């Protein structure tokens, strides 16, 4: 079984992430969405809440592939977690040229750390190319409407 890990903070998951998960599930037999425990970042949504939100969003938004998408939290290096779950590929989304430099750096570093794990990029769908979790967080913090940016499971939690 070809397994890929899609790592990230997902604070919160956006429609752009859902698009990437759906397309990754078209290529890989199993996709593990890995939610990073990042002690350096103060998240808006707690870890367990992010995991629960992604699970719900995948079940609602991607019902045809949900059985092949796992959601789990991890800490430490992405390549170590990839090895642990038997994933040979890391999935990342690219929105714009501005993403490219840091993503290229991460992909090369991960390959140096673990040459048997490769990174596959999906160009985020054009309609989601402007989206970012940090902007969504800012909008939600000031009471703005994020309903068209995030799946309903996340919008509900952000409103709360
Ligand atoms: O959603 P994000 O915050 O853009 O995701 C970044 C993430 C989680 C993919 C990256 O920070 C990561 O892989 N962190 C785990 C620690 C690690 O492996 N660091 C080396 C990466 S080159």
Concise synopsis of the structure shown:
The protein has 160 residues and is an alpha/beta fold. It contains 6 helices and 5 strands.
What is the helix tally? 6
Q: Which class best fits the helix and strand makeup?
A: alpha/beta
Major sheet details: 5 strands, parallel
Which regions contain 5 or more consecutive residues with pLDDT less than 50?
Answer: none
N to C succession of SSEs: EHEHEHEHEHH
Overall shape? globular
Structure description:
The protein has 160 residues and is of the alpha/beta class. It has 6 helices and 5 strands. Strands 3-2-1-4-5 form a 5-stranded parallel beta sheet, with helices on both faces. Strand 4, helix 4 and strand 5 form a beta-alpha-beta unit. The N and C termini lie far apart (39 Å). The structure holds 4'-phosphopantetheine (PNS).
Topology:
Layout: E1 3-8, H1 15-27, E2 30-36, H2 47-61, E3 69-74, H3 78-85, E4 89-94, H4 97-113, E5 118-123, H5 133-141, H6 152-159
Parallel strand pairs: 1-2, 1-4, 2-3, 4-5
Helix pairs in contact: 2-6
List the main descriptive attributes of the protein structure presented here.
single chain, five-stranded parallel β-sheet, 6 helices, 5 strands
